Amino acid sequence: MEEREFGRSGQHASVIGLGTWQLGADWGDVDDKDAHEVLEAAAESGVTFFDTADVYGDGRSEQTIAAFLLGRPDLHVLVATKMGRRLDQIPENYVLDNFRAWNDRSRRNLGVDRIDLVQLHCPPTPVYSSDEVYDALDALVEEGRIAAYGVSVETCDEALTAIARPNVASVQIILNPFRMKPLREVLPAAQRAGVGIIARVPLASGLLSGKYTKDTVFAANDHRSYNRHGEAFDQGETFSGVDFATGVEAAAEFAALAPEGFTPAQLALAWVVQQPGVTTVIPGARSADQARANATVAKLPALPQDTLDAIQDLYDRRIKEQVESRW
Length: 327
Known about the structure:
This protein is an alpha/beta fold. Helix content is 37%, strand content 13%. The chain has an eight-stranded parallel sheet with strand order 3-4-5-6-7-8-9-10. A two-stranded antiparallel sheet has the order 1-2. Helix 1 packs parallel to helix 10 and helix 5 (156-163) runs parallel beside helix 6 (186-193). The protein is globular, with a radius of gyration of 18 Å.
């Protein structure tokens, strides 16, 4: 599979990565066997980038990745985790002592002395502008705890603020055919600065798979049930912030645009991969078959211009007004 460079850091990641939120929590139940099979299928398909966080299942996702990689010493996988959501979301909690404590916990969970990439996990907006925060992150690198650091953001403005910092290696941001605003300023700025872009929520929480109807019911412990209006965390993390009824209708239109040989989900991932400046895209998977289907996108032909134009038109007509003023 093609690998792309995280500019400043010199690290590389497969263009199709794996998001592992669902292996920890908030997507219904995924048992240990299924989680292992997802990781195995992704790795065997050429995926070399796993994204996790210390709060996914209170560490379960990190521990699951560690157990898998322990049994596969032949693999070279860049593992990125996130930190910052174990305490109240106030800027005062983003200090070096807490960073060290969170990092100690993640290193134990992952079974490593040094973590490849650590990202601030969508912290309060003022954190992105704090000199003290970046000094603390630099200290983690100097102490050998982490190889590089980045940020995960909710808004384009947060991304641009982080990209301006000299040692930020990556920005993780929601990017998909229902969330196009980052294309205008964020991706070009990242390219100029040599900052990697990790595209998350590429299927708009599954909407872009075309599998849901307005009557679809999700499990009570699935964020697509309990966070549709931002009740638990930023609304943009669920269905990319698009109203579910609108999203289902727009997703049906989107599915009809899939060229021969593409599923709707693969169309969405291929669209992301083709955007200049994207380093890796991190779809989740609840089964080995999903992981393999996602990875296959790396081998599919480039989308033709008429398909790209039709996707842009759909976004402009149905989605843009809902999301661009907020994120």
